[in-house]
Amino acid sequence: MESGRAAAAAHGGGERVPPGKAMSMEQHIMDKGVQWLQSLKPIKQMSQHACSFALYSHDMTRQIETHHYVSRLNQDFLQSAVYDSDDATARLIGVEYIISDRLFEGLPPDEQKLWHSHAYEIKSGLWVNPRIPEMVLKPELQNLAKTYGKCWCTWQTDRGDKLPMGPPALMMSPQGVNMGSVKPDLIAKRDTKYNISSEAMGKSRIELAEPEWINPQADYWKQHGKGFFVDVEPTEMKKMVPFP
């Protein structure tokens, strides 16, 4: 039994549902009632589902499939809730912010180091919008190829964590051979699920224009061979002012 659990943890982060009691009928009724009475406006602004892959900045051997539910705040800024699947039991494992090259160029150099470029991810066919025809997506893909993303993983389900543990981990985008290649079995599993060919999508995207310039401060690990790791340290608290 223990070996089976270890294998499950290695291939999918273990059980889909975290520890806890099953929801009661009263809780189900409560949730349904709340859905009718509240607007849930931020969630309703999520306008697309994209599936891709991400690598841990401090350990490129750890690679995960990511599902992004994206909302657009304006032409230069998108935000996405990141899940480990598109199933009803999907776990919220992180968040990614996506900005245009124009906004990226205005960031301080130290901040730019935390961001990754999207050109390779888009043009190679790793970033897909399941069940949406490529012809419909082309204008959006053209824009995304010029963007930069900052992605934080808050729940490392790939190592078997049943609950969100520890500090967030900075994630990076695949950049090709010897620069964060995605493991073939991960791509094959995703392609089978959605009945697609990532390779064929990459070939169909050859005509997408390359960004005129990808800022070398992005994809910092590519240029310097170093990633970023977040740790937790105790610190003196800033005292709060008296509150009436």
TrEMBL record:
> What family does this chain come from, according to its entry?
Belongs to the OBAP family.
Coiled coil residues, start to end: none
Name-wise, this protein is Histone acetyltransferase
**What's a Pfam family this protein contains?**
DUF1264
Q: Which InterPro entries match?
A: OBAP-like
Which region ranges are annotated with the description Disordered? 1-21
Which ranges are annotated Low complexity under compositional bias?
Answer: 1-10
- Report the superkingdom from the record: Eukaryota
